[in-house]
Write a structure and sequence with these properties.
homodimer, 597 residues, alpha+beta, Butyryl-Coa Dehydrogenase, subunit A, domain 1, Butyryl-CoA Dehydrogenase, subunit A, domain 2, Butyryl-CoA Dehydrogenase, subunit A, domain 3, 3 domains, 7-stranded mixed β-sheet, two-stranded antiparallel ribbon, 23 helices, 11 strands, 12% strand
């Protein structure tokens, strides 16, 4: 009944028409022509819709169970996991030296959206493995790389990130897990880690845990944390499984969503571990790949929004209910027996809901590609400006896309009315699965604090100044078309002005008293997020106008233009509300005595 | 671990200090002194926290099952249900003629919030029964009343509302269920009803279904719908159970939340039914009690927000994590071993989240009492202005409180970080349970359409004009206190201005093309909702200032004043965003061809 149409066309538009990756970034994408990339996306989309999606609902119902100390994943997962692996999809942007395909992240991002839409709980096993791959690749010795990377790339093994303990999540200074030096440069790791995604399962031969722990005698706080490789099974240097390590699963959490992904309490009881990177530099090793990891979580928000939108859209075109007062679609058919009612997509409030989703999703997708492109430019070309800008953008990408992605699934659910509340429709699952992205990989509150506390001020504020200059230059060079000016340039200019005002406030009052800045941190992040989407929609609008004038694929570009207009008119003005909040400072937030909460 | 503190003090403040029900509405509340009402609220609160709340989580986990055609509710429900019944709580505002206690809705509203917070899935059985009681009381023959009401009042029987069918929810013109005249003024009812809350269960002896159906030969559409009483068991005139009726349960739905309330597919197979009210007047009979029913659903949003807030607040005061840059609370204690970290309530972004919840909840609670008061004035004193005003307010109350109530639970969940996503913390349940209130009893989109399509224009727009006049008069008579003016009067005035501008737009462009109004209906409703809460917060602020000056309970009133300030500064400016959307009209919503969604 439900189908998923991978948004291949939209990605191709963004990659090759909007960002013109072949022409403008030929140093990276010279080998990635449209003709080469489109079949990859089509094939990934086919796998997502035909193989992965059918496992999604069953995975939610079945969930993961702990049986005799071992985690059992949903029955359907094994086959889909293996098909993803045998298609070498997880290794798309891994280094060929270790068996990967060396394709830029920008292309892999599209594939990630498809797989995340189809079954995010399953896809997370691969996302985490990729994080472990990247961290070992960045910090491992050559022996560690040759031992662990090939099987991670092949998805023969998966990986996990172990940071959180019962007494500490955000505040890693309080970590209690111990790593005591042992024979042959190994360590004995002891402690409990909680909320470990993909902590145990039956999908792969081995699991490579990356574990933060303290070596006795190391400095207090975050400066005394080291990172360790702790495999579920000890392996030989060439990757053969030897004996089980002292790692056990204490519990599988019962969660709101992503039921198919096992979130575990992990107990390390003198487990054998190997130092990754330098002693006491564990945090910076763990967070080397932070941009990629947070990007992947933002993508989860987008991917859930997309699948939920597709189901809502389908429903709105199928469900006959109520007679609109005014019919504006010429193609509307009165399609029930008695001709008294119409499909609900004819109703303005249903369209309003669909457009809130659609205009967010398509704008966010452009943001996804833009930020991936910057990451690639940083990695391939060592472009410092790209690195700096993407570091600024990443907390926004993670938090804005997960917040709005969740909201978007809630709106999609609303389109279905009562059916949306019933699990059979799967809308509840999209809402429940989307919710986690606002929490893990640093809560969205932490992203906001990172944005105003670190990213804005990095390199003397250079990157936010660069961003503003870029948008102003776009505005100044924008078309003279009056419609475009009214519909895009004017609102963009106004939103940018709000961003500048909020920055003025932060530098004037936030430095004097950080609580003035922190009280509005989340609002500032959302303000910035809207400016980014407004800027991207304006670029899309301009491009669309050009293509319409060239009489190319007019229907497609006309829809883009109208969807962008909706965003500029109805979503972007939120910057004013966010600005008002930022400007209200600390008083109304900090004045109440905590006993009066 | 988790405790629930019934907000008795806040209700007492709203009833006796803010609205002064004894003095200002003595015709209704002369007998309801503070000394009489407070013990009622305390006792209801005790029942909620000690008896009802402990059943909530187990009810969510266990859910309802269909076994051999009968619905089994969660094990713990029976005892709590019986204690609520034996305390005569559901009959609080029922007519003494049928065994009720005749207490005004305004008082019962407080009790409803407590029970809803403690276990909304359980409480809904009572809410629905009350709806059936009210409908039979309003439209039943004296024989119907004496047969059905006493046992409904006693909660010996419960009731259900049967409107939706697979092909129709909002659009009841498409109802297919048939009612064929039979012997002794009875009818044979045949058809299928879906999404019937409390459709079957094992908590009471009998279930009285109110069923919308068409009598053969009746007019097409909504003018041919009649309402029938269809008991699960046929009863004698004095209420003795005789034989089973031809009513069966086809399915119990698997839902996102309210698992303890059985949502059923009900099959009527020549079931015996009795016409309630006049033939073909079924819809107006069913909707007589619409204000009360929609009020009850708005209360669900508030009640879930309150319990979620309490859990989040508790967590924020317990959880030690991170060191705030600036400590503004003089009473903050450095309370972990190493003195490096503090409770998270010291962090501005956590406070921001708590205050978003708190300022919504306390404002909404004042709205709950204000609207109940208007319903009581309509019922007791036949006050036409009160009736008109509350009809205008009810769609806003239902939709605004359920939308914001849901949002508030999501924010509460965020305060807990990873713990919030794990079902053990119960935060997921509050989110999932709150979600339904946005959908049933008319989706929030339908509320918005009702508001702009019917309520605004009723009696020539008299009631919205009255409302605006009332707020203006408050503004003009407000205190000369400069702080109060800056913090409350100025933002209220500005929000009221936004309301007037949106009304101007609706009357100018909405009448010419209804799609201009309908495209902004939901935004208009939210704009109006904020103005109402802003108005109520201003009244609370003014009262608080008076009490502070009188040196009475200064801590309490100071917190009220500060919480109100937060609302006025940070939530109320949303009216500007909503206005921008209303003013954007139909173009960006209706222009895209439906094939391009």
């Amino acid at each position: 009944m439900h189908t998923y149409q991978p948004p291949v066309k939209d990605f191709m538009f963004i990659l090759y028409d909007l960002f013109q990756i072949n022409e403008k970034h030929s140093d990276i994408f010279a080998d990635y022509s449209k003709d080469m990339v489109e079949p990859i996306l089509i094939e990934a989309g086919r796998l997502a819709s035909e193989v992965i999606l059918p496992t999604n609902k069953a995975g939610d119902i079945e969930g993961c169970t702990l049986e005799s100390g071992k985690v059992k994943t949903p029955n359907s997962f094994k086959e889909a996991f293996n098909k993803i692996a045998s298609g070498e999809w997880p290794s798309l942007n891994c280094d060929p030296e270790f068996g990967g395909q060396g394709i830029p992240l920008t292309i892999a991002t599209a594939v990630g959206e498809f797989f995340g839409s189809a079954n995010v709980a399953l896809y997370i096993y691969h996302v985490l493995s990729h994080g472990v791959y990247s961290t070992i690749k960045a910090h491992g010795t050559s022996k560690q790389k040759s031992t662990f990377l090939p099987n991670l790339v092949k998805s023969k093994w998966t990986g996990t990130m172990n940071l959180t303990e019962p007494q500490c999540g955000t505040d890693l200074a309080m970590i209690k897990t111990r790593a005591v030096p042992s024979i042959n440069d190994s360590y004995k790791i002891s402690g409990q880690k909680i909320y470990i995604s993909a902590g145990d399962h039956d999908l792969a031969e081995n699991i490579i845990h990356l574990v933060l722990a303290k070596i006795p005698g190391s400095p207090d706080g975050v400066k005394g944390i080291s990172l360790f490789i702790v495999p579920k099974f000890i392996v030989s240097p060439n990757g053969e499984i030897l004996n089980p390590n002292n790692v056990s699963v204490g519990k599988v959490e019962r969660k709101m969503g992503i039921h198919g992904n096992a979130t575990c309490v992990m107990n390390y009881d003198e487990a054998t571990g190997y130092l990754l990177g330098l002693e006491n530099k564990g945090l910076s090793c763990m967070f080397t790949m932070m941009n990629e990891a947070r990007h992947a979580v933002g993508m989860q928000g987008l991917s859930q929004a997309e699948i939920a939108y597709q189901y809502a859209n389908q429903h709105a075109k199928d469900r006959v209910q109520g007679k609109p007062i005014v019919l504006t679609d010429r193609d509307t058919k009165r399609n029930n027996d008695t001709q008294t009612s119409d499909t609900i997509i004819c109703h303005p409030d249903i369209r309003r809901m669909l457009l809130e989703q659609k205009s967010f999703i398509e704008g966010a997708r452009a943001f996804a590609i833009w930020s991936s492109l910057l990451i690639d430019k940083g990695n391939y070309s060592n472009d410092e400006d790209a690195k700096g800008l993407v570091s600024l953008l990443i907390p926004i990408f993670k938090a804005f896309l997960s917040d709005k992605g969740f909201e978007s699934t809630v709106i999609a659910q609303q389109v279905l009315g009562g059916q949306g509340y019933v699990e059979d429709s799967e809308m509840s699952q999209f809402v429940r699965d989307a919710r986690i992205a606002m929490i893990y990989e640093g809560t969205n509150g932490i992203q906001a604090i990172d944005l105003i506390g670190r990213k804005l001020t990095a390199s003397g504020g250079k990157y936010v100044v660069n961003f503003i200059r870029e948008v102003k230059s776009f505005i100044n060079n924008s078309s003279n078309d009056e419609i475009f000016k009214t519909d895009f340039v004017t609102p963009l200019n106004s939103a940018l002005d709000d961003l500048e005002k909020s920055l003025d406030y932060l530098s004037k009052y936030g430095l004097a008293d950080p609580n003035n800045a922190l009280s509005g941190a989340s609002d500032f992040l959302h303000l910035f997020g809207h400016v980014i989407l407004g800027y991207l929609w304006s670029q899309i609008g301009k491009k669309s106008l050009t293509r319409i004038n060239e009489n190319r694929d007019v229907d497609f570009y006309q829809a883009k233009f109208e969807t962008g207009k909706f965003y500029m008119k109805r979503s972007l003005p939120e910057t004013k509300l966010r600005l008002a909040r930022v400007l209200s400072g600390k008083d109304s937030v900090m004045n109440i005595n905590q006993d009066r909460f």
